[in-house]
Design a protein that fits this description.
Layout lengths: L10 H6 L2 E4 L6 E4 L2 H9 L4 E2 L29 H13 L5 H18 L5 E2 H18 L5 H7 L14 H20 L5 H7 L1 E2 L2 E2 L2 H14 L2 H16 L1 H9 L4 H12 L5 E5 L3 E3 L2 E3 L4 E4 L1 H4 L34 H18 E16 L2 E16 L4
Parallel strand pairs: 2-10
Antiparallel strand pairs: 1-2, 3-7, 4-12, 5-6, 7-10, 8-9, 11-12
Helix pairs in contact: 4-5, 4-14, 5-6, 5-10, 7-9, 10-11, 10-14, 11-14, 12-14
Bound molecules: 6-O-methyl-beta-D-galactopyranose (EMZ).
The site of 6-O-methyl-beta-D-galactopyranose has 10 residues, from helix 9.
Length: 388
């Protein structure tokens, strides 16, 4: 029963001091580990800024492979709120029924397909397909674009088993530049066209701003969604009773999704840059140094969550920070929640059991901590639900 487990590497240090250290390309970060400190610091944008040079608030830092500022992610209030208000209605479309119906059709097709196979590598043959196809809905782009995105692999900035890869990042940037030119020449109903058309403070967005929103949309929801989907499949393989429960109590699906986001914490952490000398947990933070808001640690904080290391499918109080916290909370959360919810419902309706055949874990190296975030690959066999 341990193949699907994601252990909590932060527990000891979180309880003892509340913070850890991580060197990252000679730009160290102080990891805040407690739920309370993470939330408080996420809220305090005046001291802990997101508006550093592009790429610096990401841990591991992306300053060497990215010049484009991701919007609204790498912008502080009040400007952040103005950008956010412009794009928010677009990112709320996943709450509409026709969107969910199309997503359900995509999920059904994938699940039906995996049920015909003797062995399925879930990362590439299920999660990557689902993430890429679902993204055509978020962008309102042709379904065929998914093929291009699938060919990029699981992370748009990283090659298999490697750290950040500038050549790979260029493929994404060039692609987005081309798409922006296409949308200028032939405006349509897609996300690029929407961004090019909107009015921002009495002017149109620049191409660089449009690119900033698009890079965020491609990068932010890529490995995160893929890990969440893969981890959910692994979890159900070892907990068939949870699948059974979803069949009998479909009304708990939304709670189960939140609980999985808490437990999986697909995005381990996000950084901020201190704009002045300050302190957290009685630890001095120097101006212009980095802190990291460790969502994964906060989500296992036993002072907030009972049985933090277990998935409690219908957990009642669940103030998790898996989608971040405060004004920067995840813009793509509605889309991600729908993907997971529909996946859970579809698996419950069609799959009786899942067997793990073999797997290789994906372990993040965070200096003094090593964290399993999911799998590099995991082969499983899906078995049809027979009895009703
Ligand atoms: C950035 C980040 C956003 C970053 C909310 O997270 O996600 C990471 O996966 C990307 O590498 O560029 O978009």
């Amino acid at each position: 029963m341990s193949k699907s487990k994601l252990p909590d590497p932060f527990e000891k240090v979180r309880t003892a001091t509340g913070y850890g250290q991580m060197n990252d390309q000679d730009d160290p970060a102080t990891l805040l580990l407690r739920h309370k400190d993470v939330r408080k610091s996420a809220h305090n944008y005046k001291t802990f800024s997101s508006a550093a040079v592009p790429g610096r608030i990401v841990v591991p830092s992306e300053v060497n492979i990215r010049d484009t500022r991701q919007i609204p992610f790498e912008v502080d209030p009040p400007l952040h709120g103005k950008y956010r208000a412009l794009v928010e209605p677009w990112f709320r479309r996943p709450l509409e029924e026709p969107y969910q119906e199309k997503l359900a059709a995509q999920v059904t097709a994938i699940v039906d397909e995996v049920l015909t196979k003797d062995s399925v590598e879930v990362v590439n043959e299920l999660a990557l397909l689902l993430q890429s196809r679902a993204l055509t809905l978020l962008l309102n782009a042709p379904y065929s674009e998914a093929e291009t995105w699938i060919s990029w692999g699981t992370h748009v900035f990283r090659s298999e088993g490697e750290a950040l890869d500038g050549d790979k990042a260029s493929i994404l940037y060039d692609y987005i530049d081309e798409q922006i030119e296409r949308a200028i020449a032939h405006p349509g109903e897609d996300m690029y066209s929407m961004l090019l058309a909107i009015e921002f403070e009495g002017r149109k967005l620049t191409k660089e701003e449009v690119k900033g929103v698009m890079v965020l949309t491609f990068a932010g929801g890529r490995d995160t969604v893929i890990n969440a989907v893969t981890n959910a499949v692994a979890y159900f393989s070892e907990h068939p009773q949870s699948l059974e429960r979803l069949r009998k109590e479909p009304e708990i699906a939304s709670k189960a999704v939140e609980e999985m986001i808490r437990y999986f914490s697909p995005l381990t952490q996000m950084g901020r840059v201190a704009v002045e000398d300050t302190q957290v947990c009685e630890h001095a933070i120097k101006a212009n140094s980095r802190i990291s808001l460790c969502w994964a640690s906060a989500n296992r904080d036993a002072s907030v969550f009972e049985n933090p290391n277990e998935i409690v499918m219908d957990r009642k109080l669940n103030p998790h920070v898996g989608f971040g916290f405060s004004h920067h909370n995840c813009l793509g959360a509605s889309h991600a929640r729908q993907i997971l919810k529909i996946l859970l419902q579809t698996l419950a309706a069609k799959v009786g059991s899942i067997e793990i055949l073999d797997y290789q874990e994906n372990i993040e190296d965070l200096g003094e901590f090593q964290r399993k975030v999911g799998y590099d690959r995991i082969n499983v066999k899906f078995n049809k639900l027979t009895k009703q």
